[in-house]
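Quick one, tokens below:
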């Protein structure tokens, strides 16, 4: 038991480190991308500087039309500067949004992986059935502390399997159909009993509970994976 506890603790620590490392890596990559992007973006005042240079180099432009043209260029440079500054803000917001999405995706992916591993562990270890109570009058079954409402047909199928389990019997599909329908086994088909088992499993709904409760024994038939002492039919 101590070794198992230590192993679980180590696994949790490694998982936590993996999550933190992944988040740090995502943030670092996006930070580097943001720095490179902003460095390579043109300066917001580049256009204004170029217009100013034109003014300096062409101080002989004295006509009204030429001066008006230079003023238009200066105004265009200011507009370009404002647009580029807004683009920088938009790009920065998009980078933050992308970082949040990537981090959330990473966390959810790790959570899903953890849940899948947990479910696999549960499937391998199984769940101990401590009590199985069949309430025929209410068309319900109580498995441990879980209650299931079933159809009358599913209750009959489960009751037959429970009685067979208490007698240590394994029932074929033909025997199940004969016991429920009251007909002779020679007049029944294996497929009919298999259909009743399928409907019972569909009524239970939970695949894990179904696989745990109703066991299909190859070439023999069907049986409940429940201790005889735990079964009670009302």
């Amino acid at each position: 038991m101590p070794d198992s506890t230590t192993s679980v603790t180590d696994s949790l620590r490694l998982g936590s480190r993996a999550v933190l490392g992944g988040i740090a890596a995502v943030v670092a990559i996006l930070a580097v991308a943001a720095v490179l992007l902003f460095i390579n973006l043109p300066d917001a005042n580049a256009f204004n500087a170029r217009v100013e240079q034109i003014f300096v180099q062409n101080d002989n432009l004295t006509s009204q039309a030429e001066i008006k043209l230079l003023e238009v260029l200066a105004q265009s440079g200011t507009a370009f500067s404002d647009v580029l500054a807004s683009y920088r803000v938009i790009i920065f917001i998009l980078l933050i949004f992308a970082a949040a999405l990537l981090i959330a995706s990473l966390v959810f992916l790790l959570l899903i992986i953890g849940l899948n591993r947990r479910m696999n562990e549960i499937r391998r270890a199984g769940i101990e059935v401590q009590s199985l109570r069949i309430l025929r009058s209410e068309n319900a079954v109580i498995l441990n502390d879980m209650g299931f409402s079933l159809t009358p047909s599913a209750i009959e199928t489960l009751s037959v399997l429970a009685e067979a389990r208490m007698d240590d019997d394994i029932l074929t599909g033909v025997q199940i159909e004969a016991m429920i329908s009251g007909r002779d086994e020679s007049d029944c088909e294996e497929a009919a009993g298999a259909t009743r088992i399928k409907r019972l499993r569909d009524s239970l709904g939970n695949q894990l509970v179904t696989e745990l409760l109703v066991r299909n024994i190859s070439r023999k038939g069907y049986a409940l994976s429940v201790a005889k002492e735990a079964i009670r039919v009302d």
